[in-house]
Amino acid sequence: MDPEAVANFLSEQRENAPEDLQQSFLTIEDYWDRKLWHQLTDVLVEYFNTPDSASQRLPLFRRFILSFSEKVNQLKFVSLGLQAATQCSDDHERLSFLTDLTTKVNKPASQDAYVYALVAASDVKLRLLDLAGARKDLDTAESILDSFDSVETEVHASFYRTNAGYYQAKAEFGSYYKNALLYLACIDLKTLTLEDAQSRAYDLSIAALISDSIYNFGELLLHPILDSLNTPEHSWLRDLLFAFNRGDLNAYNVLEDNISKAPLLDEHKTFLWQKISLAALTEAVFRRPPHDRAMTFQTVSQETKVQPHEIEILIMKALSLGLLKGSIDQVAEVARINWVQPKVLDMKQIYNMRLRLKDWDSSVNQLGNWIEGVGKDVWAA
After folding, report:
1. How many Cβ atoms are within 10 Å of 327's Cβ, its own excluded?
2. Structure pTM?
3. Which residues have CB under 8 Å from 338's CB, separation 6+?
């Protein structure tokens, strides 16, 4: 690009910029003249991150930044491109812009930037309901990411966010839950607005409850984003998660009327009852000491409020899901459980474990006293 044309363009953009931002253009032009590409890129990133720069991002990118794109950090170049893309008139124009950007950085030395741009393009395809195209791009991005030893966190965050969006659109709640949590692990939660945090916590909670592959909510229950649901409008959902975690049927019955507030939960109401019944079963087993986990079907029925003729199916379901390990004596109608899946404990469950440990300690002391009493002659010898 002709230096004089660049100077004229930057001068024109400076005049169109808000007064408090005009100084930035003098800095940009100075760095351009001196070919200080790293410093130039940083000041452009800073300028693009200013909300008042919105109307100038596209012309700056197309008529200025592209002219020296080969000389700058490609990941920052893509970042500037993504900021510029927000000013496209619609998603069709945005997809065309991002497709060109993706092609430009698709080189062996800039595969991280290629993934960053490719994921952004797939995000637009999701909004345009091109799920197949989005999946193809995401699979390509994932295979490249897997080949890296390390990559910038923002690239991973972008991938997990868009991948989660794909699985949410496909109603694959288990995969959505996994990718949404991975996305949150890649970002600083302080960068989320309260509304965004509540939305993500809400969607994660719904996915955890209605997924047929998630029976342990520990990672979500411990995540600080769940605190965003501590509001009169959403607190019931948070309470429902904790009720499921401890298999609390009474709490479920109290909160059940709120389920109609969430259409997806209401659609899966029968499944939710089955899931809370499984949670109640695992909690009943967990409360028992290891030497007392042979439970009659009648006992299981009382603990889970499930009809006696459905108990065997319930236990078999828990065994098949890996929530329990053990065996069933169909003749005697007894389930002998020797293992229960670990899970996050609330304060009440921790207190119950404390009581069990005290009982165990007492039993050990009694055994020691008995051995000492009956083995005096042996000890003397």
Report:
1. 13
2. 0.88
3. 290, 293, 325, 326
